[in-house]
Design a protein that fits this description.
One of its GO terms (cellular component) is cell division site. The chain is mostly beta strands. Helix content is 5%, strand content 29%.
Length: 516
């Protein structure tokens, strides 16, 4: 008998790391004192997909009064002044015979938590339904198995792929995994779950991240976007084995992509974080063109030297979502930082975006030490979790704009944090974290059980760097992210808040309930 909160190992899948491509230059002994960052080559992510609509996790309704005091999410600045960016929860134009209406409506209802936020780009007729070139949604156009592109080295398909797809359990899970230069597709409902359905090997580009569109998924169609070390993006449909290559040769942004996610509720828009500190919104149905910044070329830094040496740049809108030039990608582009953006996450109500970067900031919040690596929201949108180079998991209150507690238990960098939606209610939360110490920790959190430390304690860090090239200790300082687009917001200091790292002596601590 399993008690509530008991976890059992259901599947154990070993994914081999692919060897370097023969044409790829392999550095056997990299110089540890080298100051120039090496190309990003390591990236691993696993995603599970269940095609039936009953697989959605439980949702805790957030309070409608939640707002961020003085530290708002990224904002879109137009000629009329700052206005909040709203992520789309509405259908983009065009109907797809592969995606059922009930599935899309179900996802929209869950994403909206009982209310429907405004669509992304609301008010810009160039992003409205009537401007699309065709009433039918576009699909990837190139066959990946027969591709002659030098970007793809090889595509290996299971010899009985069609038969396995027709005979599989419809309630079972698919698993998609990217590891270095490989992308693999597994069927976890099959007895031969270790046999991949499809394995794609890329030539010199390494797949660092991917995301699955929960809106358009159906038994006959799955939309996946992948981000690469070259800055390029592939829109991939595994059932038809078709793909489209975007940002080809870095025509929009040539820097590697550290995180990529579909905008909640959207069929075609997705957000990519490049390691140069840029957030870019792409449309899978649009072609690419040479990008020219539409924002002001003048920096809002106090001086040119400050602009170049600062860990965090002020928010610069290079292309606004309200731009009338929406024929080609990108839909929108923001420059948020001079350093790498490691992760971002959409709030449950789809109205806010939390972003963590190598400069040690969670938007306006400073880390205790070093940079942040991962971020996620609580199911009700009240709290934000971050993990990073300080070996700590930090809990932040979104409504109160402050740190709630630091969770001590890891002995190396924290690389991923997630809430367990089935073990969260209005006052109690369960979340897990994994780190480079190869440990999984579970935590139970409630505001009522927190306590302030009675005295200062000294803790020796045991972290080491492994698979994050270019990550290094950065001096943490309170910083403010503002816009330096065509609208001048230089003097709006009262609208933002800086949060220097609070001393350990005055911050509540939380121990793990399980270490594995």
């Amino acid at each position: 008998m399993l008690f509530p909160g008991t976890y059992i190992l259901r599947d154990d899948l070993h994914i081999a790391t692919p060897p370097p491509h023969p044409s790829e230059t392999h550095v056997l002994a990299p110089n540890p004192l080298e100051t120039t960052p090496r190309p990003v080559t390591a990236g691993t992510k696993v995603s599970l997909l269940r095609l039936d609509t009953q697989s959605l996790s439980p949702i805790i309704t957030a309070s409608p009064s939640l707002s961020l005091k003085g530290a708002s999410s990224a904002e879109n600045y137009s000629e009329d002044g700052p206005c909040e960016i709203h992520e789309s929860t509405e259908n983009n134009s065009g109907s797809s015979e592969d995606s059922g209406t009930s599935s899309i409506d179900s996802v929209k209802q869950v994403l909206s938590n009982g209310s429907t936020p405004l669509a992304f780009g609301e008010g810009n007729y160039m992003l409205s339904h009537g401007v699309k070139d065709s009433g039918k949604k576009k699909k990837p156009k190139n066959n990946i198995a027969k591709s002659s592109s030098s970007f793809i080295s090889r595509c290996i398909m299971h010899e009985n792929l069609a038969k396995r797809l027709n005979e599989r359990n419809l309630n079972g899970y698919f698993a998609f995994a990217n590891i270095n230069r490989a992308f693999e597709w597994f069927d976890l409902s099959s007895p031969q779950k270790a046999e991949y359905l499809t394995k794609i090997l890329f030539t010199k580009s390494h797949c660092l991240c991917h995301d699955i569109n929960e809106v358009t998924k159906s038994q006959n169609h799955i939309d996946i976007v992948m981000g690469f070390s070259t800055g390029e993006i592939i829109w991939y449909e595994p059932i038809s084995q078709k793909y489209t290559r975007m940002n080809k040769k870095g025509i929009i942004n040539q820097h590697a992509i550290s995180e990529i996610r579909w905008i909640p509720g959207s069929e075609s828009l997705f957000l990519a974080a490049h390691i140069d500190g840029s957030l870019v919104i792409y449309d899978k149905e649009k072609d690419d063109a040479v990008f020219m910044s539409e924002g002001s070329e003048k920096s809002t830094s106090d001086s040119p030297s400050n602009h170049e040496s600062s860990n965090v740049t002020l928010l610069h809108v290079d292309k606004s979502v309200r731009s009338k030039n929406q024929k080609f990608n990108p839909v929108s582009l923001w420059k948020l930082s001079n350093q790498r953006i490691n992760a971002f996450a959409f709030s449950p109500d789809c109205r806010h975006l939390a972003m963590v970067c190598e400069g040690g900031t969670l938007r306006n919040f400073s880390s205790y030490y070093g940079g942040f690596i991962c971020v996620c929201w609580s199911p009700d949108g009240k709290y934000i979790l971050t993990g990073g180079q300080d070996d700590l998991v930090s809990i932040w209150s979104f409504a109160e704009s402050r740190i709630v507690a630091r969770c001590q238990g890891h002995q190396s960098w924290v690389t991923a944090v997630r809430f367990d939606p089935w073990r969260c209610d209005e006052s109690n939360y369960r979340f897990g974290s994994v780190g480079e110490d190869c440990r999984l920790l579970l935590w139970d959190f409630s505001v009522g059980i927190l306590h302030r430390p009675k005295a200062k304690t000294v803790r020796l860090r045991g972290s080491v760097c492994s698979w994050y090239p270019g990550l290094y200790r950065a001096e943490t300082s309170g910083s403010k992210i503002r816009s330096n687009s065509v609208v001048s917001v230089h003097d709006n200091k009262e609208d933002t808040m800086d949060h220097p790292a609070e001393p350990r002596a005055i911050t509540a601590t939380l121990p793990p309930v399980m270490v594995q």
